[in-house]
Amino acid sequence: MTAYEKPNIGIQDVQQLLKNLYENQVEDVTVVSGGNLSSVFFFKHNGKAFVIRFSDLSGAYERDQFVSHLLSSQGVPFPRSFGKGKYGNLTYSISERLEGNMLADLPDEQRSHLLPDLVKVISKMNHINVSSTAGFGWLDASGNGTYDTWEQYIVSFYQEDHTGSFWENWTELFHTTFLEKDVFDECYARLMAFSKFNGPHRHFVHNDCHAWNLLSDGRKITGIIDANCVYGDFLIDISIAESAITGHDVVQAFRDYQEQMGIAIPNFDERLLGARYYKGLDGMRFYAKMGRRDDYDYLRNYLLNLAH
C-alpha cells in the first residue's frame, strides 16, 4: 500500500472555480501548506476571508454544515460553513476563515501563556448541548452518531473492511509497511479493556484538536478548525491537546479547570488510558501509511510503555 497523497489541484483551476461561483468577485487566492487529507486555499470575497478545501475521499465534508451550526451557535469559535459542491471527481467545501495562525507556529513561550484559554475553549466545546442527537462514533449527515455504543464504534473503526474510505485495505499495512501486527494487537487488546470506562460518556469530541487545528492571535485561542468529530468521551480531546503546549502538565490543567466548573470526571485515569490507546492506535497505522517511520517508532514505544 502506497502512502496517501491528497488531491493535486492547481491554483489556476481554483481561481476559475471561485470566479464562476462568485461572479469574478474573488481576490487573493493563495495555497495553504500543510493538511494531510485536503488541498486547501484561502481567498477573499467582498472583503471577507474564506477557505476552500478539496478532497477525493468518499463522504468528504458531509457533516460540515451540521457541525458548524452546532458549535458556532453555542459560542464555540468554529468556522461557519457556506456549503459544498463537486469539481470533477473532487468534493469542495467553503467556510469562513477565522482570525489567527496555527498554534503550532507560535514559539513555546508564547504558547505557554495560552494554556488557560486553550483549556477553556476546548472544555466549552466538549460540553455543548448535544441532547437533540443520539448515538456514538462518527456523525452522520443529520448529526447523529452512527453506532448505539462506543464499543461498537471502536470495533468498527479497526475492522478490516473500510471500502471506499481512507482506510480501505488498511490491514495490508502489516505486510507492506513497518506496522507491526503483534504490537498493534497488544495495544488493541488494551484499548478494548479500557473502552468500558469510556463507554458511558457521551460528549462532542473534536477528535483532532492538536496544535495545527488550533488558531491563535498570540493573545488568545481564536478558533478550532478541521473537526474529525465523534460522539464519545471528552477525555479523547484532552489526550490530543496535551501535546499542544509543551513544558506544562496540560492534563492537570484540564482537571483543575473542570473541577472548578463542577464537572465530575469519575475513573479519570482509566478513561485517559482508553483515550490514549484509541488515538494512539489510529496514529500508528496513519504514520505507517504515510511512511513516517520516526513518528511511528516514537508512538509505538509510548503506547507500549503506558501503564495498563
Explain this structure to me?
Keywords: Kinase, Transferase. GO terms for molecular function: kinase activity. This is Hygromycin-B 4-O-kinase. The chain is α+β, with helices and mostly antiparallel strands and 308 residues long. It folds into 2 domains: 86 residues, 2-Layer Sandwich (Phosphorylase Kinase, domain 1), CATH 3.30.200.20; 204 residues, Aminoglycoside 3'-phosphotransferase, Chain: A, domain 2. Helices cover 39% and strands 19% of the residues. It contains 11 helices and 12 strands. A 5-stranded antiparallel sheet has the order 1-2-3-5-4. β4 and β5 form a beta hairpin. α4 packs across α9, α7 runs antiparallel to α10 and α8 crosses α10. It is globular, with a radius of gyration of 19 Å. The model has no long low-confidence stretch (mean pLDDT 93).
